[in-house]
């Protein structure tokens, strides 16, 4: 919890600076690639969390992996290393993306389905998201066969569960209560 608040503070600070320098979109692209890389790579996560690896080694490794970063993005890495907070880099990048999208009136809708979404279903989901939130959204489809059918829609703090597995669980609870 404390790390999330800390990551949010760093992300807000970087976003404010990026807006002042009119480079928020470029920094957003940097933060997106950092967040995706940290989430996808266990080795990168372990390197960031390691107390054994010196800060200078972490910095040089990060700058080698993320070549061509905007000076605000590389400045964030410097600041996190200086403050001994480099372990939350991925979370800061993710929070920056969320704050940037929010400031642009965009949001990410995560749709979990048993099979991949078709283009026709994407259009329907986007319409439902627009109806619920009055904002545009980018769709991220997560395939999870355990929900059996239907879908689970997550937009920020809102969750709409229309999965078959959820309906079956409700029926099971009703039968066990009686």
UniProtKB/TrEMBL annotation:
InterPro entries: ATP_synth_OSCP/delta_N_sf, ATPase_OSCP/dsu. It is a peripheral membrane protein. GO terms for cellular component: plasma membrane; proton-transporting ATP synthase complex. It is found in: Cell membrane; Membrane. Its main location: membrane. Keywords: ATP synthesis, Cell membrane, CF(1), Hydrogen ion transport, Ion transport, Membrane, Transport. Pfam families: OSCP (PF00213). GO terms for molecular function: proton-transporting ATP synthase activity, rotational mechanism. It comes from the Bacteria. NCBIfam families: ATP_synt_delta. This protein is part of the stalk that links CF(0) to CF(1). It either transmits conformational changes from CF(0) to CF(1) or is implicated in proton conduction. F(1)F(0) ATP synthase produces ATP from ADP in the presence of a proton or sodium gradient. F-type ATPases consist of two structural domains, F(1) containing the extramembraneous catalytic core and F(0) containing the membrane proton channel, linked together by a central stalk and a peripheral stalk. During catalysis, ATP synthesis in the catalytic domain of F(1) is coupled via a rotary mechanism of the central stalk subunits to proton translocation. HAMAP family: ATP_synth_delta_bact (MF_01416). Belongs to the ATPase delta chain family. This is ATP synthase subunit delta. The gene is atpH.
């Amino acid at each position: 919890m404390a790390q999330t608040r800390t990551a949010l503070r760093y992300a807000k600070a970087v976003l404010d600076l990026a807006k002042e320098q009119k480079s928020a979109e470029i920094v957003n692209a940097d933060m997106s690639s950092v967040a995706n890389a940290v989430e996808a790579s266990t080795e990168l996560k372990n390197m960031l969390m390691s107390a054994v690896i010196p800060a200078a080694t972490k910095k040089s490794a990060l700058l080698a992996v993320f070549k061509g970063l905007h000076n605000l993005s590389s400045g964030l890495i410097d600041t996190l290393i200086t403050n001994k907070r480099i372990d939350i880099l991925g979370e800061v990048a993710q929070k920056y993306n969320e704050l940037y999208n929010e400031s642009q009136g965009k949001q990410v809708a995560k749709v979990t389905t048993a099979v991949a979404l078709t283009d026709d279903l994407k259009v329907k989901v986007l319409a439902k998201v627009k109806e619920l939130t009055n904002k545009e959204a980018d769709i991220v489809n997560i395939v999870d066969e355990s929900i059996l059918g239907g879908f689970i829609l997550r937009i920020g703090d809102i969750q709409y569960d229309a999965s078959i597995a959820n309906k079956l669980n409700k029926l099971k609870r009703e039968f066990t209560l009686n």
